[in-house]
Amino acid sequence: MSKLEQLKTTLQNVLGARAELLVEALDELTLTVKASDYLEVARTLRDHPELKFEQLMDVAGLDYSAYGDGAYDGPRYAAVSHLLSLTHNWRLRVRVFAPDDDLPVVASLIDLWSSANWFEREAFDLVGIVFEGHPDLRRILTDYGFIGHPFRKDFPTSGYVEMRYDPEQKRVIYQPVTIEPREITPRIIREEHYAGLKH
């Protein structure tokens, strides 16, 4: 039995019905759990002697609104955690969907793995997922006055407002974005001796 098959069997035996979905793809396992089971399952993954996922490697926030070219019909936001067991030398991806698309909330893993701190702040800042129980959930990459979440697929790439220094008011001001749409196709350089090269 391969390590992946062994992990899959162990997860099914230990978690039972709490393993809502267990998918193997590209030599990796993804475990999907309900939001109501998320914290309990995470604790089991960390503490059960047959699993022993001692390290949380990453937490990412995902927006599924355009998944499958818009054919996806399910909850919009998910938090995906990547776990590592040094004891058993295996990895696992754990996915939990936020039950409410209008206010996506899932439990924080910070009490189980302290490394969740900045990862969850990043997912909150960029995608807008609220991690219940996080002691310091505030923006980490965008400005404190920033409105919105840049990685939501409904957020414009140029943003809604821009900030600049106004010399007349002698302060930083916010104003609507003034970026004009522009052609981003690279120019083809046709000069014969461009940059000292002969073509």
UniProtKB/TrEMBL annotation:
<dbReference type="GO" id="GO:0048038">
    <property type="term" value="F:quinone binding"/>
</dbReference>
<keyword id="KW-0874">Quinone</keyword>
<comment type="similarity">
    <text>Belongs to the complex I 30 kDa subunit family.</text>
</comment>
<keyword id="KW-0520">NAD</keyword>
<dbReference type="GO" id="GO:0005886">
    <property type="term" value="C:plasma membrane"/>
</dbReference>
<keyword id="KW-0813">Transport</keyword>
<keyword id="KW-0472">Membrane</keyword>
<protein>
    <recommendedName>
        <fullName>NADH-quinone oxidoreductase subunit C</fullName>
        <ecNumber>7.1.1.-</ecNumber>
    </recommendedName>
</protein>
<keyword id="KW-1003">Cell membrane</keyword>
<dbReference type="InterPro" id="IPR010218">
    <property type="entry name" value="NADH_DH_suC"/>
</dbReference>
<dbReference type="GO" id="GO:0050136">
    <property type="term" value="F:NADH dehydrogenase (quinone) (non-electrogenic) activity"/>
</dbReference>
<keyword id="KW-1278">Translocase</keyword>
<dbReference type="InterPro" id="IPR001268">
    <property type="entry name" value="NADH_UbQ_OxRdtase_30kDa_su"/>
</dbReference>
<dbReference type="InterPro" id="IPR037232">
    <property type="entry name" value="NADH_quin_OxRdtase_su_C/D-like"/>
</dbReference>
<comment type="subunit">
    <text>NDH-1 is composed of 14 different subunits. Subunits NuoB, C, D, E, F, and G constitute the peripheral sector of the complex.</text>
</comment>
<feature type="domain" description="NADH:ubiquinone oxidoreductase 30kDa subunit">
    <location>
        <begin position="31"/>
        <end position="160"/>
    </location>
</feature>
<comment type="function">
    <text>NDH-1 shuttles electrons from NADH, via FMN and iron-sulfur (Fe-S) centers, to quinones in the respiratory chain. The immediate electron acceptor for the enzyme in this species is believed to be ubiquinone. Couples the redox reaction to proton translocation (for every two electrons transferred, four hydrogen ions are translocated across the cytoplasmic membrane), and thus conserves the redox energy in a proton gradient.</text>
</comment>
<dbReference type="GO" id="GO:0008137">
    <property type="term" value="F:NADH dehydrogenase (ubiquinone) activity"/>
</dbReference>
<keyword id="KW-0830">Ubiquinone</keyword>
<dbReference type="Pfam" id="PF00329">
    <property type="entry name" value="Complex1_30kDa"/>
</dbReference>
<dbReference type="InterPro" id="IPR020396">
    <property type="entry name" value="NADH_UbQ_OxRdtase_CS"/>
</dbReference>
